[in-house]
Amino acid sequence: MFFKDIHIRIKIIILVTIFLFIVIIGKVFYIQVIDYKKLNKYATSLWSRNLPLAANRGIIYDTNGIELAGNITTTSLVLIPNQIIDKEKVAKDLSEILNVDYEEMYKHVSKKTSIERVHPEGRNLSYEIADKINSLGYDGVYLVKEAKRYYPYNTLLSHSIGFVGIDNQGLSGLELIYDDYLTGSDGSIKYFSDAKGNSLSMSQIYEQPTSGVNMTLTINYKLQEALERELNVAVSEYNPDQALGIAMNPNTGEILAIASRPTFSPSDYQNYTVEEINRNLPIWMTYEPGSTFKIITLAASLEEKIVDLESDNFFDGGAVTVGGATLHCWKHGGHGNQTYLQVVENSCNPGFVNLGLKLGKETLFNYIDLFGFGEKTGVDLNGESSGILFNVDKIGDLELATTAFGQGVSVTPIQQITAVSAAINGGILYKPYIVKSLNEPETNSVILENNPTVVRKVISDDTSSKVRYALESVVARGTGHNAYIGGYRVGGKTGTAQKVKDGIYMSGNYITSFIGFLPADKPEIVIYIAVDNAKGITQYGGTVAAPIAKNFLLSAIDILDIEERTDEIEREYLYTDKQYAEVPNVVGMSVKEAVKLLKKFKVEYSGSGETVTYQSPSANEKVYEGETIRLLLTE
User: Fold this and answer.
1) Most buried residue, 120, 121, 175, 428, by CB count within 10 Å?
2) Which residue in the list 95, 160, 291, 464 is annotated as catalytic?
3) Is 291 annotated in the active site?
């Protein structure tokens, strides 16, 4: 019995021993095979150090490949405190070169850390300063390459592109929205050191940084430059509180140019106010649109067939009473008897009140909803507002009447241009967008691509055609005449909206606007300009905003290579207007014959003789009457 018990105990001990061996072997296997990488990483981290190499952010291009935001290589200071022997001397020399307090620099060189960045004084150093530091030759003092964001055109497109912080992190605009894509993966130079931080004689390992994803915008740099230039001129000439512009392809929703004033420099954003930096006015600002909103009332009226522009008439006595309130026309005494086409040309408030009342609140506000007002367009920019509309249940005849001519509602410029694009492009409401694609930097393969997005069909092709015709007539014969361009079909609508403060309309303070497009029969580009409280000029959309839009469209004609036309609506001139005239062909004629034909112009001669052999401008060009025609004379 005794030997039997011993035998059992021996078996138990053997089994336990075998079990322990199995556990030990399993643990060793786990450590050597399964957990090797993790433990090796821990071990390596005890004696390896990394000098950081910042990655380039993705480059932002315009639609034609012009770089709008790129990178430049700079140098930054990195310290390894354990390698610095004479901390006092190193701190003294570095503080003098960087113009930093000695005590502050001493804290850096003495810090109990493996690697210490001198921030921000040691970041993005100039070549001269970096060279001075490098010439010291101190152990533990390193200069590493670092990428810095670079905006080659300074303030151009600044509110939309945004800016980055000192660590290249996106802080506003597209830089913030697409930061995860634009930010690359940092690399490093890995070296090995002992416990005291002294470098070991082992080869360094270079881990290459990976650049961020590139971005292509729908923006056309040349159009953007033209828009920025015209806004600068407006600011210089009128000293407005604010000004803005936005251009769009009405057939796709692509934003071609967008800008506002005041503006800012993304490279120097610290010197601007939060308001100047964050207010991207074309998508953020809300205000009563004024008469540009009449385009929506016009489109709804034509779609519902409650009016015929040519055959139906309206008498404007200068004012109309609705809901106990008197609503005036801008022209004292009114326009008298008009066709409804003339109502549109003259921007006659009582005429549009009549259209609004005919439509009724449910129908008009249904179209306002269909055109996208009262909600965000969904444009891929941050800070968009949704505007303010009347609650349909609380609308009476007065609210209906004022809405019909653009008063009492609050909209954004991006809503305005998106809605008008639908009114003139055949009736399709598109979602506006500014980012065309995101591309892998090495292969340029597309990671993300935006395409035109149809929101809904709003009006018929036939209605849209009539709207285009009416708005072309506004420019040729009505309030938009200052946007007329001879030889090109331009459509548009003026707007003059009195500003509201604390629920009260301000005296002599208006937002003047103009929305225009060309060619009027088949639009390729639409532009919206708004100027807030222009000084030194009578504040009307036709006198302030329309000429700005015209100058922009003149640039767009060349940039987009829009062909000249001969079938535009002939302009009706006011006595104060400069008039276009076609230059006759006088080459081959005698001087006397040429002068008779050129009686509308000034004539200058060069050369000698009696026969015209060359003329400038050339025959059939349209120029203002009174302009100079130069003739070359020979025998």
Assistant:
1) 175
2) 291
3) yes
